[in-house]
Amino acid sequence: MHEYKRPLYSHIRSIVIDHDDADDVLQNTFVKVFQFLSGFKGESKLFSWMYRIATNEAITFLNQKARKSGIGSEALQSKMVENLQADIHYDGSEIELKLQKAVALLPEKQQLVFKMKYYQEMKYEDISDVLGTSVGALKASYHHAVKKIEEYVKGN
């Protein structure tokens, strides 16, 4: 738990954005990891298995939050990024905030791929294990995400 707490928190926070929400999702992730550890067959790396659980928990959390708010997940993402400036745990610059806004506009899969590659500096092979997508498709998603982000940054 100690070894994975920080990287999992960082990954979850990049998805759910809010610090308190990330703590809640991290706690749920570790509960599921311990709950299902006996069923881990070792077909993938423990790291990948835990990241897959964390990713699924974060996405489920966002979908539930959007449903409770009565808005779509894209609108929720934009709203969360707007609230980021008021978050005492956020210490990013204006450029980082603009990047967050651009990423929030991406489709969910491109967001995940971009965040794992850019923020967590994960290898495509590891992202492939986590998301269950081919390396080629991930490279294409990342490329499209970067192009869309560049266009947003240039235009805003």
TrEMBL record:
<dbReference type="InterPro" id="IPR013324">
    <property type="entry name" value="RNA_pol_sigma_r3/r4-like"/>
</dbReference>
<dbReference type="Pfam" id="PF04542">
    <property type="entry name" value="Sigma70_r2"/>
</dbReference>
<dbReference type="InterPro" id="IPR036388">
    <property type="entry name" value="WH-like_DNA-bd_sf"/>
</dbReference>
<dbReference type="InterPro" id="IPR014284">
    <property type="entry name" value="RNA_pol_sigma-70_dom"/>
</dbReference>
<dbReference type="InterPro" id="IPR039425">
    <property type="entry name" value="RNA_pol_sigma-70-like"/>
</dbReference>
<dbReference type="InterPro" id="IPR007627">
    <property type="entry name" value="RNA_pol_sigma70_r2"/>
</dbReference>
<feature type="domain" description="RNA polymerase sigma-70 region 2">
    <location>
        <begin position="2"/>
        <end position="67"/>
    </location>
</feature>
<dbReference type="GO" id="GO:0016987">
    <property type="term" value="F:sigma factor activity"/>
</dbReference>
<dbReference type="InterPro" id="IPR013249">
    <property type="entry name" value="RNA_pol_sigma70_r4_t2"/>
</dbReference>
<dbReference type="InterPro" id="IPR013325">
    <property type="entry name" value="RNA_pol_sigma_r2"/>
</dbReference>
<protein>
    <submittedName>
        <fullName>RNA polymerase sigma factor</fullName>
    </submittedName>
</protein>
<comment type="similarity">
    <text>Belongs to the sigma-70 factor family. ECF subfamily.</text>
</comment>
<feature type="domain" description="RNA polymerase sigma factor 70 region 4 type 2">
    <location>
        <begin position="98"/>
        <end position="149"/>
    </location>
</feature>
<dbReference type="GO" id="GO:0003677">
    <property type="term" value="F:DNA binding"/>
</dbReference>
<keyword id="KW-0804">Transcription</keyword>
<keyword id="KW-0731">Sigma factor</keyword>
<keyword id="KW-0805">Transcription regulation</keyword>
<dbReference type="GO" id="GO:0006352">
    <property type="term" value="P:DNA-templated transcription initiation"/>
</dbReference>
<dbReference type="Pfam" id="PF08281">
    <property type="entry name" value="Sigma70_r4_2"/>
</dbReference>
